[in-house]
Amino acid sequence: MKFANNEKLQFVKRGAAIAYTVGLIQVSMALLCQGINIYLLTYQHTVDHSIIHFVALHVVMDIPNLYLESLIGVKLKEEMFENQHIPKFY
């Protein structure tokens, strides 16, 4: 997020705003899930329930990463990485 904010000229038009927003969503999701995780694990009475809730929230935290990986070949990802030499996976 800091790089996107400080180095706007390194991105294509609207690329810095997109990169900043993606980073903000990632950080917000991680903080929210960790808060929920602490709350849920504090009030569990059995180890089984603690493990189930921990694994479920870990999956929720991986959703943004899965979404970014699914954007291969999509216009948004092409616009974000247009000027960079990143190998494209087809």
Describe the structure.
The structure is a single chain. Helix content is 69%, strand content 0%. The chain has helices spanning 2-6, 15-42, 47-69, 75-80. The chain has one domain (2-80). The model has no long low-confidence stretch (mean pLDDT 76). Helix 2 (15-42) runs antiparallel to helix 3.
Radius of gyration: 17 Å
Low-confidence runs: none
Order of helices and strands: HHHH
Residues in β-strands, percent:
under 5%
Overall morphology: elongated
Q: Please tell me the total number of domains.
A: 1
Counting DSSP H or I runs of 4 or more residues, the number of helices is 4
Count of extended strands: 0
Structural class: mainly alpha
Fraction of helical residues:
55-70%
What separation lies between the terminal Cα atoms?
28 Å
The major β-sheet equals:
none
Keywords summarizing the entry:
elongated, mainly alpha, 90 residues, 4 helices, 0% strand
